[in-house]
C-alpha cells in the first residue's frame, strides 16, 4: 500500500466514533493511512442516557468521552462542517472557537452527521419547547423542573400550581419516552420527599404519541407494554395524537385538547441537516442519503454514509432501518470492513 490514503470521518457520534475505533484497529501502525475526524463538540455523547442527566440522576461527564482520547491514530478537528464538494473531494470546516474556515481533502469520506430536531416548521412550538439532543438541553430541562418545583411550592393558587406541575412530552420514540420516564420519577419523588406543600394530586405528566403505541422502533408488542408501564407510573399516555401549537403556558393537541402547562418538551422527530439534504446525490424523501448494500453513495464509491443521516434499507423487509444508536453501531462495522476491503483489496 505505497500511496497515502486519506480517510475523513464527519461526525463524532455513534456512527463516526465506531467507524474510527474499528479502522484504527484495522490499520494499526499503517503509515500510509491518514485518518481525520471532524465534529462540532470535542466529546462523544452517549445520548440514550441524556434523559438521566435531565433528571439529575447522573452527571454529564458520566456520558461523555473526549474524542481525543479515542484518537489513537487520527487527527481530530473540533469544527462545524460548512460544505462538501463531493466532486473535488473537499470538505470545508469552520473552527468552533474563532469561526476560521479551512478545507480538508480526502480519498475516502464517511458521513455520520446524525440528525436535527424537527419542529415541522412550527415556530410557536420551536419557541416554547425544550428539546433533548445535547448536554445543554438536558441541563436546561433539569433546571426548568427544579424551577417549577420551587415555584409550585410557593403558590396557593391551585390552578397555577397544577399548571406548574404539568409536564408534557411530545414524541414517543426513545428520546421522548426515556425523558418522560425520568422526569416523572424526579417530579413525583421530589414532591413526595421534599415539596410536601405541592401535593402529589397536582402533578400531571403527559406523553403525546402520534401513533397507536409508543416506541415504534421496538414494534407493537414492546411498545404497548412500555405504554402500560408508564401509565402505571402515573403518566397520561395520549396516543394517535399530535401537538399542533404551543404558547408560554399551554400545548394544543390536534384532538382539540389544550393542556395548560409551563413545560413542553419536544422530541417528535428528526430532520436531516441541509448540508446533507442539499448534496448532489440520491436522497430519501426526508433528505437522508441513499446508500447501496455496501453503505456507499451510489454515485460515489469512495463515500460511505451511516446512522441517522443515511437511508439504509433492511433487505429482508424492504423497510428503512430506524434511526437508533444500535443501528448506527451495526452499520459502523459494515462501513469499516468495506472500507478496509476497498483500500487493501482483502
Ligand atoms: C435523548 C435521546 C435518547 C435516545 N435513546 C436511544 C436509545 O435508548 N437507544 C437507541 O438505540 N437510540 C437512542 N437514541 C437515538 C440515537 O442517539 C441516535 O440514533 C444515534 O445517536 C445516531 O447516531 P449517529 O452517529 O447517526 O448520529 P449522532 O450520534 O447524533 O452523531 C452525529 C455527530 O455529528 C456531529 N455533527 C452534526 N452536525 C455537524 C456539523 N454540521 N458539523 C460538525 N459536526 C456535526 C454531532 O455533534 C454528533 O457528534 C436517542 C436519542 C436521543 C436524543
From TrEMBL:
Coiled coil: none annotated. Keywords: FAD, Flavoprotein, NAD, Oxidoreductase. One of its GO terms (molecular function) is NADH dehydrogenase (quinone) (non-electrogenic) activity. Transmembrane segments: none annotated. This is NADH:ubiquinone reductase (non-electrogenic). It comes from Marine Group I thaumarchaeote. Residues 6-331 form the FAD/NAD(P)-binding domain. Pfam families: Pyr_redox_2 (PF07992). SUPFAM superfamilies: FAD/NAD(P)-binding domain (SSF51905). It catalyses: a quinone + NADH + H(+) = a quinol + NAD(+). Belongs to the NADH dehydrogenase family. Its EC number is 1.6.5.9. It is an enzyme of class 1 (oxidoreductase).
Amino acid at each position: 500500500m505505497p500511496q497515502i490514503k486519506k480517510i475523513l470521518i464527519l461526525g463524532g457520534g455513534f456512527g463516526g466514533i465506531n467507524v474510527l475505533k474499528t479502522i484504527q484497529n484495522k490499520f494499526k501502525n499503517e503509515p500510509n493511512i491518514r485518518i481525520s475526524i471532524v465534529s462540532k463538540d470535542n466529546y462523544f455523547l452517549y445520548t440514550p442516557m441524556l434523559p438521566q442527566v435531565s433528571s439529575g440522576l447522573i452527571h454529564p461527564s458520566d456520558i461523555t468521552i473526549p474524542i481525543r482520547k479515542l484518537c489513537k491514530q487520527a487527527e481530530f478537528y473540533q469544527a462545524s462542517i460548512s460544505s462538501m464538494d463531493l466532486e473535488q473531494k473537499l470538505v470545508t470546516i469552520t473552527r468552533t472557537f474563532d469561526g476560521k474556515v479551512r478545507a480538508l481533502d480526502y480519498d475516502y469520506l464517511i458521513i455520520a452527521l446524525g440528525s436535527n430536531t424537527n419542529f415541522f416548521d412550527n415556530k410557536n412550538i420551536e419557541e416554547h419547547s425544550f428539546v433533548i439532543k445535547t448536554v445543554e438541553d438536558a441541563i436546561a430541562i433539569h433546571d426548568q423542573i427544579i424551577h417549577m418545583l420551587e415555584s409550585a411550592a410557593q403558590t396557593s393558587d391551585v390552578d397555577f400550581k397544577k399548571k406548574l406541575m404539568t409536564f408534557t412530552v411530545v414524541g414517543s420514540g426513545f428520546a421522548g419516552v426515556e425523558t418522560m420516564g425520568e422526569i416523572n420519577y424526579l417530579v413525583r419523588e421530589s414532591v413526595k420527599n421534599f415539596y410536601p406543600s405541592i401535593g402529589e394530586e397536582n402533578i400531571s405528566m403527559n406523553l403525546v404519541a402520534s401513533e397507536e403505541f409508543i416506541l415504534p422502533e421496538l414494534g407493537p408488542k414492546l411498545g404497548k407494554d412500555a405504554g402500560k408501564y408508564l401509565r402505571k407510573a402515573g403518566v397520561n399516555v395520549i396516543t394517535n395524537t399530535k401537538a399542533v401549537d404551543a404558547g408560554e403556558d399551554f400545548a394544543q393537541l390536534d384532538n382539540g385538547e389544550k393542556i395548560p402547562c409551563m413545560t413542553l418538551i419536544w422530541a417528535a422527530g428528526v430532520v436531516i441537516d441541509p448540508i446533507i439534504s442539499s448534496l448532489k446525490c440520491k436522497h430519501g424523501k426526508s433528505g437522508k442519503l441513499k446508500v447501496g448494500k455496501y453503505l456507499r453513495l451510489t454515485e460515489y464509491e469512495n463515500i460511505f454514509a451511516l446512522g441517522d443521516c443515511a437511508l439504509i434499507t433492511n433487505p429482508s423487509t424492504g423497510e428503512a432501518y430506524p434511526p437508533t444508536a444500535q443501528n448506527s453501531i451495526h452499520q459502523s462495522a459494515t462501513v469499516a470492513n468495506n472500507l478496509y476491503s476497498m483500500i487493501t483489496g482483502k
